[in-house]
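Lecture notes, continued. The same structure-token format from the folding unit now serves as the input rather than the output. Read the line below as a description of shape only.
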């Protein structure tokens, strides 16, 4: 006999949040991407052949992201829920922050927006510490409004490469957790996502 408890709204929300999150993320991004590709095909734009989607599960996200930051030439736009660094040599968020500083020193524009919580003081402390560090190197870090949570994890590089998914910038997310993100190589999508980041307040 079918267990009707699985039909309750609460159960459905739990399934969506914890079991189907990676699949839902992939489907949503591909759904957003498909109209762009279809439009390119209809107009005969050859850039369609250069559009790629790469899965970046778990610890595979970090090396790809840091390589793209190192290769950035013009811009890095980022929206992140938490960016938690520390002084340990192998701390991956600290390595990312160091590469962002290097990118800024070679002339790359680096724009970051972070979550500012009205209840999570430890999160605020981590993000403010990061903002102070990067601010000393002329990197623009701003915070969202207390009225709405910014749970986005997104990095756009050179208005072309889009990293979108579940990875926060914490050691756990970048090295140990079950996480799933996508790398989209698509200029039209990058433009839309950068505009989304710019509109966060």
């Amino acid at each position: 006999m079918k267990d009707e408890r699985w039909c309750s709204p609460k159960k459905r929300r739990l399934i969506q949040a914890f079991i189907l999150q990676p699949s839902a993320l992939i489907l949503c991004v591909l759904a957003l991407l498909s109209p762009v590709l279809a439009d390119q095909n209809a107009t005969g734009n050859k850039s369609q052949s250069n559009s790629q989607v790469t899965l970046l599960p778990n610890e595979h996200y970090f090396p790809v992201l840091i390589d793209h930051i190192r290769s950035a030439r013009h811009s890095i736009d980022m929206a992140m829920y938490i960016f938690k660094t520390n002084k340990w040599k192998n701390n991956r968020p600290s390595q990312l922050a160091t590469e962002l500083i290097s990118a800024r020193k070679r002339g790359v524009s680096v724009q970051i927006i972070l979550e500012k919580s009205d209840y999570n003081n430890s999160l605020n402390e981590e993000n403010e510490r990061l903002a102070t560090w990067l601010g000393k190197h002329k990197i623009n870090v701003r915070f969202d409004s207390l009225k709405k949570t910014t749970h986005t994890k997104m990095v756009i590089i050179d208005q072309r490469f889009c990293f979108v998914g579940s990875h926060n910038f914490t050691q756990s997310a970048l090295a140990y957790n079950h996480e799933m993100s996508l790398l989209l190589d698509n200029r039209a999508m990058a433009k839309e996502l950068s505009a989304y980041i710019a509109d966060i307040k």
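Point for the exam: Strands lie at 52-57, 75-80, 109-114, 140-143, 154-157, 161-165, 180-185.
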